[in-house]
Amino acid sequence: MADEEVVLLAAKFSTFAERAKIALAEKGIKYELKEEDLNNKSHLLLEMNPIHKQVPVLIHNGKPICESMIIVQYIDEVWKDTAPLLPSDPYQRAHARFWADYIDKKIYPNGRMLWKSEGEVKETHAKNLIESFQTLEKELGDKPFFAGESFGYVDLALIPFYSMFYTYESLGNFSMTVDCPGIVAWAAKCLEKETVSKSISDPQMLHEAIMEMIKKVDS
């Protein structure tokens, strides 16, 4: 597959694009990264993802694949001989997909609402976010990674949100270390992998970008 063309359309601080970056890094795939300005989307992005017009988009030999976890599954299936991300057992694969879907339905929306709401509504989303992390913590148990001894699909789905922990704590007025110590320890284990640590955003820089965005909205 040495002659293949692999391009990733991403954007700075995109947790969803970071999933694709980690998957490609895990597989050792060389690719061209094209960072999009989402306020001035390129013709290529609009052509490759005309429905949602969002990143990430993986372009493999000219063909686009959209949506982060669909991209991750595609990468895992195409480059299946290296660092498998999904289990081989059908039940375990379904189980992993369930928890990745849970992350998208619980972690992302509740976290996002911490800077889009105020008062009791904000407090409710903070409570829901903590409870969602605690549910994931129970699923993790005492395993180093969600699938056991190896970094896999569910870990990859969740770890980009590590960069948001500081912002969640700041805006939600809670402590991940106090409320979800197992998730914090799991994140530290994931960050030992260069494929992860070099693919995700710096928490402080991301926090500053979000606070700047909030100021612009409020002004």
Salient structural properties:
219 residues, alpha+beta, Glutaredoxin, Glutathione S-transferase Yfyf (Class Pi), Chain A, domain 2, 4-stranded mixed beta sheet, 4 strands, 57% helix, Glutathione_S-Trfase_N, EC 2.5.1.18, Omega/Tau-like, glutathione transferase, Glutathione-S-Trfase_C-like
Walk me through the structure:
The structure is a single chain. By secondary structure, the protein is α+β, with helices and mostly antiparallel strands. The chain is 57% helix and 8% strand. The protein has helices at residues 15-27, 43-48, 68-78, 90-112, 119-140, 153-158, 165-172, 176-179, 181-191, 194-197, 203-218, and strands spanning 6-10, 32-35, 57-60, 63-66. The radius of gyration is 17 Å and the shape is globular. The model has no long low-confidence stretch (mean pLDDT 96). It is an enzyme of class 2 (transferase).
